Amino acid sequence: MIQSYLLVKAKFAIKRDDRSSACRHLHRHISRYPGDYEGWLLLGGLLRPEDGYKYIQKAQLLAPENEAVIDAVNWIENKIPNPKPIHTKQDAAKIPAKNHQPEPVEQISSPYLIWASRGILLLFLFLLAALFTVGLLSFIQGTEPTILGRKLIIVTSGSMEPVFETGSIILINTRANNNFQEGDIIMYRSPENPHTNITHRIIDVMDEEGVTSYRTKGDNNTYEDPLLISNQHIVGEYTNITIPRLGYFFSFIRTRNGIITLAMLFGFYLVISQAFKIKEYLLESEPEQKPVASINAENEA
């Protein structure tokens, strides 16, 4: 039994009840591997009993002791009154022997392996497209990207180690309410430099005349931050989600060279995928060699 890619495609087509595609793939399969009884058997089962009998009989000549073949022969002979053999002894001598070993082909262990590989490929493409989009937005906006209210921040210092380390990516919830408490980790704009964002822990909450302010400190710092923080400075709250070391990669894709590299990878995939599609199209366009049983039937006619 040969599990060529044509036979696997035919079986998938049979499951989808696409008989036209299944017959086309099976014809190509048995033309290339005439010693495989399964291809003849499946093709005979797809056709009307009057048309499929010759293919099932060919399978019988290749594997006379196979149970599936025996059942198929019994079934189709009950469907056809007085079936007439289409193979003479001379024709049978031209048929490959039962133990004939066809040329080596790629072995496919399971159809599920094909679906798994396709799923992994689709996941890779999704991640590649997502990274390209994030990098492009960061490059255009000149700031960290925000997705569904979560800002992706690259940690550039070790002030909060060991909670998150330099080079990590953390998610900041920019939609968090202003009821922060002692122990919360927040990201805020520096009162001295609004273009600088700092992510530290609140160590004290003060309320004076209805105005709330916070004192912050990095877990790995010796001293607390010198200035108090108000709600107007706070960008968001740390979501406890950290991706270690991915920040180095994000720092790269935010650059011009990073965008170009991702675009080249995506273009390379498109070229390779189209090359495989062209190859498959050329194979589909090849003139099909008629199966032995079909030739014999035409000669007798």
Secondary-structure element series: HHHHHHHEEEEEEEEHHH
Query: How many individual domains?
Result: 2
Q: Assign the structural class, choosing from mainly alpha, mainly beta, alpha/beta, alpha+beta, or little secondary structure.
A: alpha+beta
Looking at the overall shape, the CATH architecture of the largest domain is: Alpha Horseshoe
Given the C-alpha coordinates, what overall shape results?
A: elongated
| Radius of gyration from the alpha-carbon trace, in angstroms | 34 Å
**First-to-last CA distance:** 31 Å
For the record, what CATH class of the largest domain applies? Mainly Alpha
Helix content: 40-55%
| CATH fold-level name of the largest domain | Serine Threonine Protein Phosphatase 5, Tetratricopeptide repeat
Identify low-pLDDT runs.
86-109, 286-301
Query: Can you say what the CATH homologous superfamily of the largest domain is?
Result: Tetratricopeptide repeat domain
* Strand residue percentage: 15-25%
Q: Quickly count the helices.
A: 10
- Going across the major beta sheet, what is the strand order? 1-2-3-8-4-5-6-7
Provide mean pLDDT, rounded: 76
Count of individual beta strands: 8
**How would a textbook summarize the main sheet?**
8 strands, antiparallel
Would you kindly provide a written description of the structure presented here, covering whatever features stand out?
It is a single chain. This protein is α+β, with helices and mostly antiparallel strands and 301 residues long. It has 2 domains: 117 residues, Tetratricopeptide repeat domain (Serine Threonine Protein Phosphatase 5, Tetratricopeptide repeat, Alpha Horseshoe); 96 residues, Umud Fragment, subunit A (Ribbon). The chain has 10 helices and 8 strands. Strands 1-2-3-8-4-5-6-7 form an 8-stranded antiparallel beta sheet, with helices on one face. Strand 1 and strand 2 form a beta hairpin. Helix 2 packs antiparallel against helix 3 and helix 4 runs antiparallel to helix 5.
